[in-house]
Structure formats: structure tokens, C-alpha cells
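Consider a concrete sample entry:
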Amino acid sequence: MSNKTIILSSSIIFISNLLLIHSAKSQSLTDGFMKGKGHGSVVVSYSWERYDEFYFGTEQMDAPGDFGGQITTQSVSLYGIYGLTDNLDIIVNLPFIAAQGDNGEPEAPNQDVSGLQDAALFLKWRPLYIETESGNLSFLGAVGLATPLSDYADNAVLSIGNQSTRADVRLMTQYFTNSGFFVDLQAGYSARSNDVPNATLLAGKIGYAGKSFYVDLWSESQISDSNAPDIGGVPFNETRVNYTQIGISGYVPITSALGVSAGLGQFVGGRNVGLATRVSGGVVYSF
């Protein structure tokens, strides 16, 4: 199966590099598959995420009521990718996020915030593509910029983002076998404004991309600059946030142009971050 006809696993995404403890975090906007010149996909996706366990620094505990208690985040995202050439893709993402905090006290009102979050624009380039007897090996790079779309609060217990403009650089490699199995690895760095700590980004996938379905197992980590402080005494957007999350995502075509995607993710460790469980789904139109 050619790279041009594979629906990307990144169809099941929103913004992945938010820093605040109650922001939606998900998979990277980039991976090792190229769309091919003149080919593209548009995805409308929905995600539901919830947590009530939290890492204060590196200590895991229940999230107290004054930190929102149980946090539920719902997101709707419009994502698009288009092949400018066989080796150059452009990617855009526009998310709307709603977050709610329930502190467990019936007499106290729930906290609610919502709005447009951060628009992202990426370019992904594949400078080297090597065919072998058993498959192909790709080396890729990506650069991107994300910036806030609305005047949401950035220093609040419950917020949808951190009002930070971010510039990301990523390096990727992928080996794709003739039988459809693949391995995808990437590493990058994110430089951020508004006193948000910069971060190293790591990700990996193993999966299968065939004619009838796509599935992958993935892991993604963020490591904030080590000189950033833990929660307490500084604005929330200046907090050091590390995390590791794992998950599974998949895609099934319905027609030659339409398909559905779904995913499940779980935070398994970190620093100043909620241990959220996320469920997502989307409708994919390819052309």
C-alpha cells in the first residue's frame, strides 16, 4: 500500500503541546507518512478527557477542590493536511475546548470555561526516502508554529491553555514494511513564549497500515526545562510540566473518500500534570 493512500494516524488529534495542568493533550500533529502531491485529508474530531488524580511535583494524590477537583475536558478540532509535493506536506489544526471542574461539593457551582484555543500550522518535509527489499525507510523533519486564537485566561485553576506562542522543531524516522507493519520515531524541541517553559518532545509508534484498516500503539512524552518551578508561588503557565502518555488509535474506511477514526489514551506518569484518560473519535474526508 502506498503512502499516498494511507490515512494518517494523526487524523485523530488536537493540539499536543499544551502545558497547563488542565489542558487537553494528545498525539503529535506530525508522523512519518506523507500524503503525496495533490492529496489531502480533512478531519473533524471529538475528544473527551477526565482526571481526578494529579501529580503535585512528583507526588501523586487526589486533586483537591481548589484545583478544580475532577476535571473533564471536551474538545472539537478541525484538522487538515495537504501534499504540496510528494515530499512536503502542510498541516493546520483549529481546536475548540471546553473544560469543567467538579469539586464534589453540591452547594458549590461547577467551574466552566470554553473557547477557541491555539491554531497550529506545520510543514513536514521528507528529504530522504530509501527503498529496500522488505519495505522503505524515511527520514523527515517538521517545523511548526502555534498561537492563541482567543483571549482565554492563562493563569487560572481551570483554563483551556496558556496564551503561549510556540515554535516546534521535530526530527522523525519511519520504517514501513511491504506487509504493512511500521515503526515511527520522533524527537523535537518546543520554544514557548509568555514565560511557559520550553520542552523536549519524544514520541514513538508501532502499527499496521493496510487496505482495510489502520491501527497503532503509541507513546509520547514531554520534558520541560529542568529550571522551571513546580506548582506553588508562580503563575500556572510558568510551571514545569512533564508527562508520559500511551494509547491506541485506529482508522477504518467506509468509502474511498470517507472513514472513521477512534483512539484511547492514558497518562501514566509525570510532574505537575493530571493522570487523564482520553477517548476520541473523528470523521475523515480524503481527496
